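Need fresh eyes. Consider my entry:
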Amino acid sequence: MLKKLTRKISSSKNIRPVKVLQFGEGNFLRAFADWIIDILNEKTNFNGAVQIIQPIQNGMGKMVNNQEGLYHVVLNGIQNGKPFQQTRLITSVVGVINPFENFQQYLQCAENPDLKFIFSNTTEAGITFNANDNNPKILPESFPGKLTVLLHHRYEFFKGSKEKGLILMPCELIDKNGENLKRTILQYISHWNLSSTFKKWIEQSNIFCNTLVDRIVPGFPKDTIQEIQEAIGYEDNLAVTAELFHLWVIEAPDSVKQIFPTDQAGLHVKFVKDLTPYRTRKVRILNGAHTALVPFAYLRGLRTVRESVEDNYVGDFIRKAISEEIIPTLDLPKDELQQFANDVIERFQNPYIKHELISIALNSISKFKVRVLPSILEYHKRTGKLPERLLQSLAALILFYKGNWQGEPVPLNDTPEILNFFKALWEKNTLEEVVQKVLSNASFWDCDLTQITGLQEMVTRQINDIIRTN
């Protein structure tokens, strides 16, 4: 009989002061940021806990609280040429607050004098302004709206104290995520007619860091959870698997490094003045390859990243998409880019990681815009040609969002607006009309893709090819 995970059996019975407020209880942050905090607590004098805020109404908060914030991270990979696995009990998380159920409890988090950091990962679609958030006295819909009311409560509670400003480290994979978050908060301040002194406090007493995160996190190990639980001796419904590799690049003043002493813990965290080269390389090659791979491989009956990369046809597709269509759009040395690409493929082939394609497919439209579309546009700009493989992925994506393939439902996971758009589109239009309306939808792509000569025709042809050959 497996024992239940509770603080009574944890070596960390004493709850540390909450220094981090984290928006998001998903696999990535728990296997990345919270894992890092756990190591900081062990190896440095950081001594801080993480309070998680559930960013959507139906989340995993109850599951986390049922285990009193405890769970295991299982790292798998190759180290020094040999298989390596490490399991760590994470004790840094104190629990989850659901602001949809208790708005006042959420606001009270801002009254914590020990609070230093805000982490978030609400996907690429998360840092957006919602004009329907009209009343700051009730819980806003958007993440930046929720954060603005929290910061305003802190500002008022501590009477505008400069010392009570926070360090914000968003992990959403968008360019200049810290600057975007700050700009959106200022938008809400204007929208709600909040005071100019609060605006000044946001701008001068808080630090918004642009960040870049990198770790492949497949998530809950449903195929091996029984073995893992037998090895640890506890029931753990929140165990999360990840690769050994991790990288956090943080664009911040030196003062942040002093109170976030990751260098003392041997962690792969870089504090830099400009993370642009790191971001462009990672987003275009690693994340771009992930996002381009998902619909193309899924429609061919493949279900994991590893089997997709090792499939002769799909593996050749993604390798050539990277080397022939993504790398030529980047300005770093070609040898360096090719080495990074080779390392990425090797990480995709990690035999100890089962990364489900469908888990990467969350919010694929916004991901495609951020991760793949820049390569398509830059390739066309530099060569005057269209990148055939990246557009094959776009064709597969449009077909993927039909929500049904070869008589089987596709478990799409995106915003209701996007899902409803595609549902109505596929029900009422011909294939040619579907392609035209998707490509011309500027709310998806920030531009009208039908204006690029030949692109609409190529995507239409490729969809027909996928239907015919699968």
Remarks:
- The mean pLDDT is 94.
- The first strand starts at residue 3 and ends at 4.
- The chain has two domains: 3-272, 276-469.
- Residues 276-469 form a domain with the N-(1-d-carboxylethyl)-l-norvaline Dehydrogenase; domain 2 fold (CATH 1.10.1040.10).
